[in-house]
Amino acid sequence: MYKPFTLVLFDHHTDMMNSLFGNLMSCGCWVKRALDENKMLKKVIIIGVEKKLIDNIDEKYRNRVFCYSEEDIKHNILWTSFLKDKIDKPIYISIDKDVIGKDEAKTNWQQGILTLEELREIFDFLVDNGEVISVDVCGESSSRDEIVENFYSDSIINSEANKEIIEMVEEESIVN
Fold first, then answer.
1. Among 23, 46, 49, 156, which is least packed, fewest CB within 10 Å?
2. Residues 3-51: pLDDT tens digits?
3. H-type helices in the chain, by residue range?
4. How many Å apart are CA 156 and CA 137, to the nearest integer?
């Protein structure tokens, strides 16, 4: 099925950087590359991004990338109105666990402050108000040598986060 869609990304970062490795796509530049190369991707909504990173988005993408910062969520600014105004159907949801605070998920990079409860609330709203075509989840902690001492405890926390996210997706009948 090839039809226009909106990407809704839960992420602490914009993932709109230029590639640091020539033409290699990485976690820091994949959204920018998708906007440049995927003609079906019409709009990106990033939820939970750190406010100071929003200003770094290149001006040429400002009419296709809309951000709702973690600060706005914490200050209870009306995200439902924001999303209703910005969502075009169908939507693809991507969840990077770095959007979740360190008490509920562990990654190897700077993390956000959203709770799993806030993630679930916004996710449920998206499902209720959009046509979700797919969901992906990323953001596992790696077992690099310098962090191996925390890998086991981080894995336990991430397993719980993964369980909650999977239940959230299954409850909404996204995954069969």
1. 23
2. 999 999 999 998 877 665 667 555 666 899 899 999 999 999 999 999 9
3. 30-37, 51-54, 70-74, 79-86, 116-129, 148-171
4. 17
